Amino acid sequence: MVLLGLLGALSLLPWSPTFAHYWSELVAAHSPYGLASWGSHAIVLLAFFPTGLAFLAIDHVGWLSRYKIQADAKVTRQQLGKLALNLIINFGITLLLESHLIIGRATAAGRGLTVSQELPAPWVTIATIVGCAILQEPVFYYSHRLLHVGPLYRHIHKVHHEFHAPIALAAVYAHPLEFGIQNIMPLFVPYLLLRSHLFTFYVGCVLNVLGTQMHHCGYRLPAWAFPFGAPKGPQPNFHDFHHEATHCNFGILGLLDRLHGTDTKWRAAVQARGGQAYVRWSRKRKAVVESPYPVEERSD
Predict the structure, then answer these.
(1) DSSP classification of residue 262
(2) What pTM, to 2 d.p., does this model score?
(3) In this structure, are residues 188 and 181 in contact, taking their beta carbons and an 8 Å threshold?
(4) What is the pLDDT of residues 83-127, one digit of tens each?
(5) Residue 80 belongs to what H/E stretch?
(6) CB 204 within 8 A of CB 135
(7) Would you kindly state where each structural domain of the chain is located, as residue ranges?
(8) Which has the closest alpha carbon to 295: 249, 241, 220, 251?
(9) Burial 159-172 (b: 16+ CB within 10 A, else e)
């Protein structure tokens, strides 16, 4: 619901004369290539770091500790050092290259985003982003599940699972190949296929970044924050369980996990908690004793 509200608010920006004037000047002053490549890179960075650093500060101060899903887990300085280096590589090299080689070049060649001074109607922005989200869900689920197979997991995806208790800043802590293929491509390609407006693409980038950070934030968010999603609890719990139990809960919405039965451990663990999503690590560990699917089971 939080992201849907933000989508509604951002989609109404074109109705603001001030914003429309600023947008017109921006498009007139820069090339389509620059707006698509450098612009997409900047939008992702501006959406990612303020939110990720804010959650890191909350972790450090402990203001919301009672809402922490894995309350006993602490991020070490060594982990933060590896995280910083990984983000430099992924954002400074991988994302930069893909922004220029995919989004920038396709747009400059007239096969990518639509760049114009005229802004899209709110319903067009909303419909496009919803359509892209529908396309992204099966791509993410099946590619994510593939990454949990044998050598792909051991040599690539296991990097992301070094954070058994995820934090928002580590949402894209991943092997550069995984970051480029499984994180960035599903974000970029649907908007290119739909020839979406540059403004719509920018809004979609912001929502995707904030969405993945919410999934990895490590905090139990209120149920109304996710009107659609995994059964018996809001999404952060659903994906947090994936990091803890490893080989389950591969999707974002939980629908394909239910279809393929890859949420069996999750549903059994939730049932052991009396039908409620996990809220505290201590309660979770106690409840798991009754579950036929222990969450401590890992292959790493």
Answers:
(1) T
(2) 0.86
(3) no
(4) 999 999 999 999 999 999 999 999 999 889 999 999 999 999 999
(5) helix 77-89
(6) no
(7) 2-219, 235-288
(8) 241
(9) bbbebebbbbbbbb
